[in-house]
Amino acid sequence: MKHPLPEFASDNWSGLCPEALDYLIRANAGSAPAYGFDEWTAGAADAVRALFEHDAEVFFAFNGTAANSMALAHLCRPYQAVICHEWSHIETDECGAPGFFSHGARLLLGQGRHGKLDPASADSFLGGEGDLRFPRPAALSLTQSTEVGTVYSVEELTRLCTWAKAHGLAVHVDGARFMNAVVALGVSPAALSWRCGVDVLSLGASKTGGGIGDTVVFFDRDLARGFDYRCKQGGQLAAKMRFMTAPLLGLIETGAWQRNARHANDCAAYLIRRLAEYAIEPAFPPQANAVFIALSAAEAAALRERGWAFYVSQCHGAARFMCGWDTTPERIDALVAALRACRAR
């Protein structure tokens, strides 16, 4: 079969990195208890706890949609609401799954520059206290890194978590690219999560060289009570769980998660430098592994005609180019050359 070159449409187009694949192959040897009662799943849960330096409750789901939606449903009653940025993944890309899993909880859409929620905007949803016509906020959901490739600093995240706790809101973080954010800031996973006040994190690994599945990390064990039943009812209890968890264990034990995230971030920085040579400016500050560029309809069409796949956001209209663990400088150079040609035409 043809082996396609690394693409920029998404960082989850890539295959498993060697370390994750090695652990998957090892987990495939012989038989093991089903439904998560295997040593690989236990090892992955313990590895997550060690990574975050916290005795957290750890659960596994098939994908980020389920991880985010089940976590938010666990934090909200059907008549309550989640405050999030208007460009957040749970609003724009989950097909209403948070409302489906929560049986009706609403998303309240705040604003903020560069994809980061402004505390003042979030605060505007709290004026309806006691008004039965308006859903009562119960949770704050933030995306790290954001949908436009920016990153909440430790100070920004702490400020939002402190605000949320002062108003009785639990804090959830959609961490599909959490590993990229950690590396970008040069901090520990603990420093960018529970130490800031985060209660629940949906930890993604498929975009950092892992395989199938996301991890739901409850830093508040009391808050996690009954979540195992929610996973089962939601169709997220995998029979052969070890094939979801062994690659994650490989990423953590070998340190590949950090190397892969750093490589992806470095590739995005290289792409920015190459674009700057031709005065092509990013649409948003590139702080992790995503680069957004404003393209005209003609330029986008011409680039696609040349065989390049990429996503154009319906929120802000910029084209997204994602770098992953398998991105190469040569492929970036080819992309820049194609962009130049399309602009010249």
Concise account of the structure shown:
By secondary structure, this protein is α/β, with parallel strands linked by helices. It has helices at residues 18-27, 39-52, 64-75, 89-92, 97-102, 119-123, 154-166, 178-185, 227-233, 242-254, 256-276, 297-305, 329-344; strands at residues 57-61, 80-85, 106-110, 136-143, 170-175, 200-204, 214-218, 290-293, 311-312, 319-322. The protein has two domains: 18-254, Type I PLP-dependent aspartate aminotransferase-like (Major domain) (Aspartate Aminotransferase, domain 2), CATH 3.40.640; 256-344, Aspartate Aminotransferase, domain 1 (Alpha-Beta Complex).
What do these coordinates show?
With 345 residues, this protein is an alpha/beta fold. It folds into two domains: 237 residues, Type I PLP-dependent aspartate aminotransferase-like (Major domain) (Aspartate Aminotransferase, domain 2), CATH 3.40.640.10; 89 residues, Aspartate Aminotransferase, domain 1 (Alpha-Beta Complex), CATH 3.90.1150. Helix content is 40%, strand content 14%. The chain is built from 13 helices and ten strands. The chain has a seven-stranded mixed sheet with strand order 1-7-6-5-4-2-3, sandwiched between helices. A three-stranded antiparallel sheet has the order 8-10-9, with helices on one face. Strand 9 and strand 10 form a beta hairpin. The longest helix is centred in the C-terminal third of the chain and has 21 residues. The two termini are 34 Å apart. The model has no long low-confidence stretch (mean pLDDT 95).
